[in-house]
Every structure is written in C-alpha cells, then in structure tokens.
Amino acid sequence: MTTLSRSSPRRGALQSGFAVIIACLLALSVARLLAQTAPVLLSPPPFWSTSGPEGAYVSDLIIDRNQTSHVYMSSRSGGVFGSVDGGESWRRIRARSLYEEVETIALENSENVLFAGTTNGISRSTDGGETWSDPVAGGPNTVILTLATDPSRDCTLLAGANAGVFRTTNCGSTWTNVLPATGVMAVAFDPSNPKTVYCGTATGVYRSLNEGVNWTSRSSGLFPGQIRTMIVDPTTSAVFAAMYFNPLIFKSTDQAMTWSQVYSGDSNGLVNALAASQGATPTLYAMSVAKGVLQSRNGGENWGQIRPGKLAATYGIGSVVRVDPSNPSTLYAGTFGGGVFKSTDGGETWTPSNSGTRDTFVSSLAIDAFSPDTVYAAAYLSGFFRSTDGGRDWSRLNLGISDQHLSTVAVDPASPSTLYLGTAEGHVFKSIDGAKTWVSSSIGLPSTTNVFKIVVDPAQPSIVYAATSYLFEPIDLSRYMPITTPKGLYRSTDSAKTWRESDVGMGTPYIVDLAASPSSSALYAATFGKGIFKSVDQGAIWRPANTGLPTLFIQAIAIDPTSADTVYSAIGEGSPWLWKSTNGGARWSSAGEGLPLIPSCYGLAVDPLDPNTVYAGTGEGVYRSTNGGANWAPFNLGMENIRINNVLIHPNGSKRAYAGAFSGGTFRLPTRDVSAVATR
Known about the structure:
The model is unreliable at 1-43 and 674-680 (pLDDT under 50). The longest helix is centred in the first third of the chain and has 29 residues, at 9-37. Helix content is 5%, strand content 41%. The strands form 16 sheets. The protein has a 4-stranded antiparallel β-sheet, with no helix packed on it. A 4-stranded antiparallel β-sheet has the order 3-4-5-6, with no helix packed on it. β27 (331-335) and β28 (339-343) form a beta hairpin. The protein is mostly beta strands. The chain is built from 2 helices and 59 strands.
C-alpha cells in the first residue's frame, strides 16, 4: 500500500486544492454580503452624443497642392477638419476651443506644417494635425486674419493681423512684425514672381518687392477703406482687391501702382473671397455674400453669376472659394453655416460636402410633445432639420422659403403637426402638415426685425407670442453688424394669422428670452437692459419683476413646469449670475454655486420629472443642478469645449434631453436618469 509522507508532492497538491476551494467559498460569501449593501452599477453614467445636423461655419479652406485630394477646413468654433478624399468625408483634427476662433489656415508643403491663425495668435501642427502647439511666445499673439505661404521659399510665411504683417522664415518658430498696420485681412504672393507680395489693410494696399521684408503703400485709384481679400492672376500677374464694406472689386495691371474698378454689386453683394484657376487662360472666381459664386473668363474685366444665386439662395452666405490646382473644374465653397460645397463642373452644380463636420449653429430646438423621437432644429444660415429617431440622424427639410436666418421654431403642444418658424428677416411661417409645406403668417409683424423667439400658449394654443430682437449679420469671419432692431413683443390670438403689438408696460424692449408657464397664466419676458417683465393676462399688460436683481441685463429665463412661482434667470453681468425666485418674480435671490465665473448663459431648462434638476446652457457647455439651483456642476460628458445655446427637455415623461450648440450641432442625452448607482 502506498503511503503519503508529509513531504509527498501529491499530498501537497491536495492541500493546495483544498486551500483554493476554501478561499473561493470565502470570497463568494463576502461577495454575497457586499452585494446586500454595496451600490450596484446599473448603467454607465449618461453622456451626450451628436450626429448632426451636418454643416459648419466655414472660415477658411485650403487644398494641399502636392496631394489635391487632401483638403483642410477651419470652422468658426475653433476646430480644424481634414479630408483625404476630396471632401467626401471629414475628420476633426483640431478640437474646439472655448475662448478662441480659427480665422484662417495654411499649409507649408516642404515641411508639412499646418498653421491655424486664431483670435489668440498662431498655432501649428507638425504631424498632420494630430497635435497642435500653443501660440509661439513672442509671436503675433493677436487676432490673425489671414495666412499666406511663400511659394518659392521653404518655411516662409506671412501673417496678416490686427496689428500688421508678421513674417517667419523658420516655419513659425519666430516671427517679425514687418509692417505695422491695422486690419490686415489679405496677403497675396505673385505666383509667377514670389518676391512680389501684396497686402490689404484698413487703409488700402501695400506692396513688397522683397518677399515681405519692406513695404510701400500702393492705393492710387482705390476706393478708400478696408480691403477684404486679394489675389494675383497666376498668368498675367494682374492684382485684384475686393473692398470690405463696399461690393467693389478693383484691378491693377502695373503691380498696384494704379487701380481701376471692374465690378460693382448691390449693397448685399459684398465679396468675401477671390480665387483663380491654373492654366493659360485662368478663370477668376469671387464669393459674393448675396449672389454666391461670381466668375470672370476675361481677366476680371466682366463678372457674372454662376447659375445665378443658386449657391447663395440655397446654402447661405458664402465665406470662401478655392480651386483645385490640378483640376480647374473642381471648386470648393465654404459658407457661413451651411458648411462646404463642391463642384466638379466649374461651378455649374454644387453638392454638399459635409460628412463628419457637425458644426452647425443650432439657434433653436423644438420637440413633438407626443413623440420623444421627433425633434426639430432651426440652424442659423444652415437650414431646417428634423430627426425622427431621437437625434441619431437628421434630414434637411426643403422649406420653400427664401429666408435664411432661421431664429426659432415652436411646436403646438396640442397638435404636433402644427409648427411655427421665426426668421431674422422679420417673418413667421406656419406648417399644419408636420413641416411638409409652409405658408407665411406675418400679417401685422414689422419687417425690419428679428423674430427671435416664438412661444405657443400651453393652455390656449391659438394664442402665439413672437418676441423680436436684433439681428447681427456676419460680414466676415469675426465681425458682426446689426441690421435689424428690436420691435418688442407681438401676440396672435388666431393661430398666427394676424399679429398685434403686445408689450404694454415694457416699451419696446430688446427681448432675449420668453417663457410661458404650463401650470398657470404666468408669462415672463427677459430683456437685455430693462430686466424681467411678467404678465398674468396673456401678454396684455406687463409689469417689472426685478426686485433683488443686481442688473437689468438678462440673458435667459425658465419656469418650473410644476410650480409657476419658481422661476430661474441668468443675468448678463457680474457673479453670481444665476438667480431664483420662489414667489413668482416678486423677489430674487442669488443661486448658482459652482457655475463658471463668466456670465455666459444662453438657455435654462427645468426637468418636469424632477423640478429640482435644472440645466444651464453656457459658454462652457451644460451645467446641472440637482438641488433647485443651489449648487451646480459640469454635465458635459461627450461634449468638448462648446457653447450651448439651448437645452430642451421632453415635457411628457420621456427621459430624453437635447442641447443645441453654437457651431457644434445638436447633442442628445438618451436618458437624463443620472443615477449611476442604486442600493438594494
């Protein structure tokens, strides 16, 4: 008989096996004990996601002349996108920035260095946009308006800025201010003689004959004022300059010694960009704000629209046009809001080229009260969009209207097939078939104003309110001009067939927000400069409701949907900037610990399922409070450095939430049940 000694390997193995079994049983017992009291992870924390609408507020476009299928685009939001398939698809290669905008981009081909001119200076990437440097210390740390690479000298660039022209000969490691000037918005090298370079400033044109080292004023014959854009004909070396505030193009055939006017458009025909094709007989192109792409085939002597008005009327204000250096029939056009469009037939036809961009300026969101999956987005200068799957996919709807500045959209809470759309052209449009067709419903409204906000009375949907505001038109990459003025508040009692002024007690305020209580007759108007007004008689009479507020400059307002006496407001100056009233606006007290110091709130929303949960759309994303506004924390998982214009909560029990961004599209939160853990 075999016996096992104490040192037997078999016996040691059995002992080890028993030890493992005992350890497992102990671990299982402990696990069961912990399971009775420990939190159980139910689901990952909620996060925001976006799938559109596609588009961008394009500030610049460049084409890699060595690989023309490689195209780069900068968006006003501060992002840079790259495409390796001729614009068929885009990938963000530079993240958005909260406090800077990208005005211009450039590519230095010899070293493959990509530059981004921003409102804070020049950032560069040496790895195709994967990583970016901060602006160079000692460099032009100011607003950069344009960048141009020297086609004959490696690593040599010129930067046009608010403070003049800056030059580098080492790919941006150091910069020298070679021309102190103001408003340098254009720099253009002569492709056939790169020693000659021109720049457009606030006071006219300057010329350099030594690659930008020294400059001389050359403006004889030019209309006085700011130069917006310039180009040099690659065949004849003729120079073209477009004005900033005047729809004029000038031409010089003697290296800018003298100038003659070759184009004059109407007051809305400002020219934002010029371009030229390569070849023996190049075609010149101009991007007009109102008329789309202009074309000249005789050296700029005569200009005409390509497919008159098609690009402008359909896709918004044009910002830039570029020609493929290897194929003169291929053009790219950038727009303020509509993104990038491409033509392969010299501009005769255009197709959207925005896959992957998702940088639209969403000015307003509205939701079908009976269907949480149906959401509408009014995108300023980009169009009108609808999602029927909870914001996963978006389709652009053909409205059949000429207005482009879409400011607000509202859905009838009792009849979701009825929608209202307000525009900055001063119009209201109505659809009664779920956005298939639209008719003008503007009788009684002033034409020279911005219909900024439409609210349908929750109790009597035949009563509709329209708040008016300023319209600030983008006239270039970084400047806006007010082209309409506020006209107060208007009310319709016949479902928007006719309108009457309804701001007795307010005067003619600059209204920035409007809110109606679903549980009472209370109506609040937030104004910028006159404070908050309240009406309890459907807008007939308004009374101030500002006691306790430190300023009359208000940015946003929201009502607790379960208690009309609880109201939140965001002020436009000072800190704290979030205020709360629990007695219907009779008195306000400060709230908002944990919010950003800078007062930048563009929308407030109260959760109807849990009125202690409040959302704020800010210049730094979404913030959330779960204790009635007392304390706040960032609620931005899935968002990156983005300004949120509005937050939308489904009113009838769905747990979905949506957020519309300034140059960032629409974000969706599949569930706002933010409890990541629960106890048994």
